[in-house]
Design brief:
By secondary structure, the protein is α/β, with parallel strands linked by helices. About 35% of the residues lie in helices and about 20% in strands. Bound molecules: adenosine-5-diphosphoribose.
Protein backbone atom coordinates (compact mmCIF):
# COMPACT_ATOMS: atom_id res chain seq x y z
CA UNK A 1 0.00 0.00 0.00
CA UNK A 2 1.37 3.43 -0.88
CA UNK A 3 1.56 6.01 1.90
CA UNK A 4 -1.76 7.63 2.72
CA UNK A 5 -1.88 11.42 2.41
CA UNK A 6 -3.20 13.65 5.20
CA UNK A 7 -5.00 15.83 2.64
CA UNK A 8 -7.35 12.95 1.73
CA UNK A 9 -8.98 12.76 5.18
CA UNK A 10 -11.66 14.86 6.84
CA UNK A 11 -11.26 14.06 10.51
CA UNK A 12 -7.74 13.27 11.64
CA UNK A 13 -6.57 12.31 15.11
CA UNK A 14 -2.89 12.37 16.02
CA UNK A 15 -2.36 10.18 19.07
CA UNK A 16 1.04 11.05 20.47
CA UNK A 17 3.45 9.63 23.01
CA UNK A 18 6.94 10.37 24.21
CA UNK A 19 8.49 9.48 20.83
CA UNK A 20 6.79 12.59 19.40
CA UNK A 21 9.04 14.76 21.58
CA UNK A 22 12.16 12.60 21.32
CA UNK A 23 13.56 14.62 18.44
CA UNK A 24 13.11 17.76 20.54
CA UNK A 25 15.47 16.20 23.08
CA UNK A 26 12.86 15.22 25.69
CA UNK A 27 13.74 11.77 27.05
CA UNK A 28 11.20 8.99 26.51
CA UNK A 29 10.04 6.86 29.47
CA UNK A 30 11.11 3.45 28.24
CA UNK A 31 13.89 2.17 26.01
CA UNK A 32 17.44 3.52 25.84
CA UNK A 33 17.82 6.67 27.94
CA UNK A 34 14.26 6.26 29.27
CA UNK A 35 13.29 8.23 32.40
CA UNK A 36 12.03 5.11 34.24
CA UNK A 37 15.37 3.40 33.73
CA UNK A 38 17.10 6.06 35.76
CA UNK A 39 14.34 7.07 38.18
CA UNK A 40 12.11 4.67 40.10
CA UNK A 41 8.53 5.81 39.47
CA UNK A 42 7.54 4.37 42.86
CA UNK A 43 9.68 7.09 44.46
CA UNK A 44 8.76 9.97 42.15
CA UNK A 45 5.56 9.40 40.23
CA UNK A 46 2.78 8.04 42.37
CA UNK A 47 0.50 9.44 45.04
CA UNK A 48 1.96 7.27 47.79
CA UNK A 49 5.44 8.67 47.04
CA UNK A 50 4.01 12.18 47.20
CA UNK A 51 2.28 11.44 50.51
CA UNK A 52 5.58 10.17 51.93
CA UNK A 53 7.87 12.88 50.62
CA UNK A 54 6.28 15.70 48.61
CA UNK A 55 9.51 17.69 48.46
CA UNK A 56 11.39 14.82 46.76
CA UNK A 57 8.59 14.37 44.24
CA UNK A 58 8.62 18.12 43.53
CA UNK A 59 12.36 18.10 43.07
CA UNK A 60 11.97 15.41 40.41
CA UNK A 61 9.21 17.33 38.63
CA UNK A 62 11.13 20.58 38.70
CA UNK A 63 14.07 18.72 37.20
CA UNK A 64 11.75 17.48 34.43
CA UNK A 65 10.38 20.97 33.87
CA UNK A 66 13.97 22.15 33.49
CA UNK A 67 14.65 19.43 30.92
CA UNK A 68 11.60 20.37 28.87
CA UNK A 69 12.29 24.11 29.15
CA UNK A 70 15.55 23.54 27.33
CA UNK A 71 13.73 21.84 24.42
CA UNK A 72 11.75 23.32 21.55
CA UNK A 73 8.94 21.83 19.47
CA UNK A 74 10.35 19.92 16.51
CA UNK A 75 9.34 19.95 12.82
CA UNK A 76 6.86 17.13 13.49
CA UNK A 77 4.97 19.27 16.04
CA UNK A 78 5.03 22.10 13.51
CA UNK A 79 3.68 19.93 10.70
CA UNK A 80 0.75 19.02 12.95
CA UNK A 81 0.12 22.72 13.60
CA UNK A 82 -0.08 23.37 9.85
CA UNK A 83 -2.41 20.37 9.46
CA UNK A 84 -4.74 21.86 12.09
CA UNK A 85 -4.71 25.20 10.27
CA UNK A 86 -5.26 23.84 6.80
CA UNK A 87 -7.25 20.63 7.01
CA UNK A 88 -10.92 20.34 7.97
CA UNK A 89 -10.64 18.71 11.39
CA UNK A 90 -7.50 17.81 13.27
CA UNK A 91 -7.39 16.76 16.91
CA UNK A 92 -4.43 15.82 19.05
CA UNK A 93 -4.83 13.25 21.80
CA UNK A 94 -1.56 13.15 23.67
CA UNK A 95 -0.07 11.20 26.53
CA UNK A 96 2.67 13.80 26.77
CA UNK A 97 2.78 16.24 29.65
CA UNK A 98 5.49 18.44 28.15
CA UNK A 99 3.17 20.99 26.54
CA UNK A 100 5.17 20.98 23.29
CA UNK A 101 2.11 20.66 21.03
CA UNK A 102 0.67 23.85 22.55
CA UNK A 103 4.04 25.62 22.44
CA UNK A 104 4.26 24.75 18.75
CA UNK A 105 0.87 26.43 18.20
CA UNK A 106 -1.67 23.58 18.16
CA UNK A 107 -5.01 24.31 19.81
CA UNK A 108 -7.22 21.24 19.82
CA UNK A 109 -5.32 19.09 22.28
CA UNK A 110 -6.60 16.54 24.77
CA UNK A 111 -3.88 15.88 27.34
CA UNK A 112 -4.68 12.45 28.76
CA UNK A 113 -1.92 12.54 31.36
CA UNK A 114 -2.17 16.19 32.36
CA UNK A 115 0.40 18.92 32.08
CA UNK A 116 3.76 19.45 33.73
CA UNK A 117 3.09 23.19 33.99
CA UNK A 118 -0.22 22.95 35.85
CA UNK A 119 -0.65 22.23 39.55
CA UNK A 120 -3.58 20.98 41.57
CA UNK A 121 -4.18 21.21 45.30
CA UNK A 122 -3.90 17.77 46.80
CA UNK A 123 -6.56 18.68 49.37
CA UNK A 124 -9.21 20.94 47.77
CA UNK A 125 -8.53 20.06 44.12
CA UNK A 126 -8.27 23.64 42.84
CA UNK A 127 -6.02 23.93 39.77
CA UNK A 128 -3.56 26.57 38.69
CA UNK A 129 -1.70 26.92 35.40
CA UNK A 130 2.02 27.69 35.61
CA UNK A 131 2.12 26.59 39.23
CA UNK A 132 4.87 27.36 41.72
CA UNK A 133 8.35 25.97 41.34
CA UNK A 134 9.83 27.24 44.61
CA UNK A 135 9.71 24.75 47.42
CA UNK A 136 8.62 27.36 49.97
CA UNK A 137 5.55 28.21 47.87
CA UNK A 138 4.27 24.69 47.58
CA UNK A 139 1.12 25.06 49.68
CA UNK A 140 -2.30 26.08 48.42
CA UNK A 141 -3.18 29.60 49.65
CA UNK A 142 -6.85 28.64 50.10
CA UNK A 143 -6.63 25.49 52.22
CA UNK A 144 -2.92 25.01 52.95
CA UNK A 145 -2.92 21.63 51.16
CA UNK A 146 0.10 20.61 49.09
CA UNK A 147 0.21 21.64 45.47
CA UNK A 148 0.96 18.59 43.37
CA UNK A 149 1.72 18.48 39.67
CA UNK A 150 -1.57 18.09 37.76
CA UNK A 151 -0.32 15.05 35.91
CA UNK A 152 -1.50 11.47 35.96
CA UNK A 153 0.78 9.35 38.12
CA UNK A 154 0.85 5.58 38.21
CA UNK A 155 -1.89 5.14 40.82
CA UNK A 156 -4.09 7.95 39.49
CA UNK A 157 -7.27 7.90 37.44
CA UNK A 158 -7.47 9.83 34.20
CA UNK A 159 -9.70 12.88 34.09
CA UNK A 160 -13.14 11.68 32.92
CA UNK A 161 -13.93 14.75 30.85
CA UNK A 162 -10.62 14.52 29.00
CA UNK A 163 -11.09 10.81 28.30
CA UNK A 164 -14.62 11.39 27.02
CA UNK A 165 -13.54 14.18 24.69
CA UNK A 166 -10.59 12.12 23.43
CA UNK A 167 -12.76 9.04 22.92
CA UNK A 168 -15.36 11.02 20.96
CA UNK A 169 -12.70 12.45 18.65
CA UNK A 170 -11.09 9.04 18.13
CA UNK A 171 -14.37 7.21 17.57
CA UNK A 172 -15.35 9.74 14.90
CA UNK A 173 -12.11 10.06 12.96
CA UNK A 174 -11.39 8.72 9.49
CA UNK A 175 -7.59 8.79 9.90
CA UNK A 176 -5.88 7.83 13.15
CA UNK A 177 -2.14 8.38 13.37
CA UNK A 178 -0.34 7.03 16.40
CA UNK A 179 3.09 8.57 16.90
CA UNK A 180 5.82 7.40 19.25
CA UNK A 181 4.03 5.46 21.92
CA UNK A 182 5.05 2.09 23.31
CA UNK A 183 1.33 1.25 23.75
CA UNK A 184 1.88 -0.44 27.10
CA UNK A 185 0.24 2.08 29.43
CA UNK A 186 -3.48 1.69 30.04
CA UNK A 187 -6.10 3.03 29.82
CA UNK A 188 -4.54 5.25 27.10
CA UNK A 189 -3.51 2.16 25.15
CA UNK A 190 -7.17 1.09 24.81
CA UNK A 191 -8.14 4.23 22.91
CA UNK A 192 -6.82 3.37 19.41
CA UNK A 193 -9.27 0.44 19.30
CA UNK A 194 -12.13 2.96 19.00
CA UNK A 195 -10.63 4.28 15.76
CA UNK A 196 -10.22 0.78 14.35
CA UNK A 197 -13.77 -0.18 15.37
CA UNK A 198 -15.10 2.84 13.52
CA UNK A 199 -13.28 1.90 10.32
CA UNK A 200 -10.68 4.67 10.41
CA UNK A 201 -7.44 4.08 8.58
CA UNK A 202 -4.96 3.47 11.39
CA UNK A 203 -1.31 4.42 10.89
CA UNK A 204 1.43 3.65 13.39
CA UNK A 205 4.56 5.80 13.35
CA UNK A 206 7.29 4.25 15.44
CA UNK A 207 10.81 3.05 14.66
CA UNK A 208 9.94 -0.22 16.41
CA UNK A 209 6.93 -2.55 16.48
CA UNK A 210 4.74 -2.32 19.58
CA UNK A 211 2.23 -4.67 21.24
CA UNK A 212 -0.49 -2.67 19.41
CA UNK A 213 1.03 -2.88 15.93
CA UNK A 214 -1.52 -5.45 14.73
CA UNK A 215 -4.29 -2.91 15.11
CA UNK A 216 -2.72 -0.73 12.44
CA UNK A 217 -2.92 -1.29 8.71
CA UNK A 218 -0.06 1.09 7.88
CA UNK A 219 3.27 1.00 9.72
CA UNK A 220 5.77 3.79 9.16
CA UNK A 221 8.95 2.57 10.77
CA UNK A 222 11.08 5.61 11.46
CA UNK A 223 11.29 8.81 13.47
CA UNK A 224 8.21 10.99 13.91
CA UNK A 225 9.39 14.00 11.89
CA UNK A 226 10.41 12.08 8.78
CA UNK A 227 7.37 9.78 8.88
CA UNK A 228 4.96 12.70 9.30
CA UNK A 229 6.60 14.32 6.29
CA UNK A 230 5.80 11.14 4.35
CA UNK A 231 2.12 11.55 5.25
CA UNK A 232 2.28 15.11 3.93
CA UNK A 233 4.29 14.31 0.81
CA UNK A 234 3.14 16.35 -2.17
CA UNK A 235 1.27 18.90 -0.03
CA UNK A 236 3.65 21.87 0.17
CA UNK A 237 1.43 23.86 2.54
CA UNK A 238 1.75 21.10 5.12
CA UNK A 239 5.46 20.59 4.62
CA UNK A 240 6.13 24.27 5.35
N1 LIG B 1 9.89 8.98 16.63
C1 LIG B 1 8.84 8.16 16.87
N2 LIG B 1 8.82 7.26 17.87
C2 LIG B 1 9.90 7.19 18.66
C3 LIG B 1 11.04 8.02 18.46
C4 LIG B 1 11.00 8.94 17.38
N3 LIG B 1 12.01 9.77 17.12
N4 LIG B 1 11.94 7.69 19.42
C5 LIG B 1 11.40 6.73 20.18
N5 LIG B 1 10.17 6.42 19.72
C6 LIG B 1 9.21 5.45 20.24
C7 LIG B 1 9.80 4.25 20.96
O1 LIG B 1 10.06 3.20 20.04
C8 LIG B 1 8.69 3.88 21.93
O2 LIG B 1 7.81 2.94 21.37
O3 LIG B 1 8.46 6.12 21.22
C9 LIG B 1 7.94 5.19 22.17
C10 LIG B 1 8.10 5.79 23.55
O4 LIG B 1 7.54 4.94 24.49
P1 LIG B 1 7.41 5.33 26.03
O5 LIG B 1 8.70 5.89 26.51
O6 LIG B 1 6.84 4.19 26.75
O7 LIG B 1 6.39 6.58 25.99
P2 LIG B 1 4.80 6.56 26.02
O8 LIG B 1 4.24 5.45 25.20
O9 LIG B 1 4.38 7.93 25.66
O10 LIG B 1 4.49 6.28 27.55
C11 LIG B 1 3.17 6.26 27.98
O11 LIG B 1 3.89 6.01 30.23
O12 LIG B 1 5.07 6.47 32.20
C12 LIG B 1 3.95 6.75 31.45
O13 LIG B 1 2.68 8.64 31.80
C13 LIG B 1 3.81 8.21 31.09
O14 LIG B 1 2.59 9.16 29.22
C14 LIG B 1 3.56 8.18 29.59
C15 LIG B 1 3.07 6.78 29.37
Amino acid sequence: MSDPCLRDYQRIVFFTGAGMSAESGVPTYRGAGGIWKEYDYRRYACQSAFDRDPAAVWEFHNFRRGLVMRCDPNPGHQLIVRAEQQLPQVTIVTQNIDGLHARAGSHKIHELHGNLWRVRCDHCGVKQQDGPVQREQLRCPTCDGWWRPDIVWFEDYLDDAVVQAATAAIAGCDLFVSIGTSAVVYPAAYLPQHAADNGALCVEINPDPTPASELYSVHLRGPATAMLARLAAGVPELLG
